[in-house]
Design a protein that fits this description.
The chain is of the alpha/beta class. The protein has helices at residues 16-27, 39-48, 67-81, 105-133, 154-174, and strands at residues 7-10, 31-36, 57-61, 86-89, 136-141, 179-184.
């Protein structure tokens, strides 16, 4: 029960690693707001969690690449949970695969929007509340694209590398406010993305 009494927002929580993070946070006592673009799938993850000792488990549709959607998510989280102690930016996509001159440009840009802006904007949205309380934890999921070139998966690589530099920068910006910011690169996992 390391997270008892804490509240956490987990993006991309409808399947794979996000669903597993939600299960582990719930087991450790946290109250949760889960989000994903697939409302039915994220609600199914929420329904599998069994609350104890006053825990609350909430789920909501959110596209992290859309600031208005994120603003609505944060507002609902604060209304229902009172505060956000932890943010886990897990939402992400590979984007189109293939040669840069052949892939669909709109899909390439969407991957940058979800993976990079969909990490930055939720951080921006939770920081004021964390600063006001003088503490908080932000965890940004990184990936292989941040450490090695990935020919044929350029949108993913181009979005994950700056996500890590943003995380390092934000960590230094927020250190004096008691807010801890880290990037975690879990490596290859047997999830839908790997399929």
């Amino acid at each position: 029960m390391k997270l008892q009494g804490r509240t956490a927002l987990i993006t991309g929580a409808s399947q794979g690693l996000g669903a597993e993070i939600a299960a582990q946070f719930a087991a450790e006592g946290a109250s949760l707001m889960l989000c994903a673009r697939d409302e039915t799938a994220v609600e199914a993850v929420r329904a599998r969690l069994i609350p104890k000792d006053g825990q609350k488990f909430l789920a909501m549709r959110c596209d992290v690449g859309d600031p208005k959607s994120v603003d609505a998510l944060i507002a609902e989280s604060l209304k229902r949970l009172g505060r956000l102690d932890i943010l886990v930016n897990n939402a992400g996509i590979y984007g189109p695969m293939g040669a840069i001159e052949e892939v669909d440009w709109a899909e390439w840009v969407q991957a940058i929007n979800i993976n990079l802006m969909g990490t930055v904007y939720p951080c921006r949205a939770v920081v004021p509340g964390m600063k006001a309380r003088g503490k908080g934890k932000i965890i940004n999921l990184s990936g292989g694209g941040a450490t090695n070139p990935l020919p044929g998966i350029s949108a993913y690589a181009a979005s994950k590398a700056p996500s890590v530099r943003f995380t390092e920068t934000l960590a230094l910006e927020l250190k004096s406010f008691g807010i801890d910011v880290n990037a975690v690169a879990p490596g290859a996992l047997a999830t839908r993305m790997m399929d």
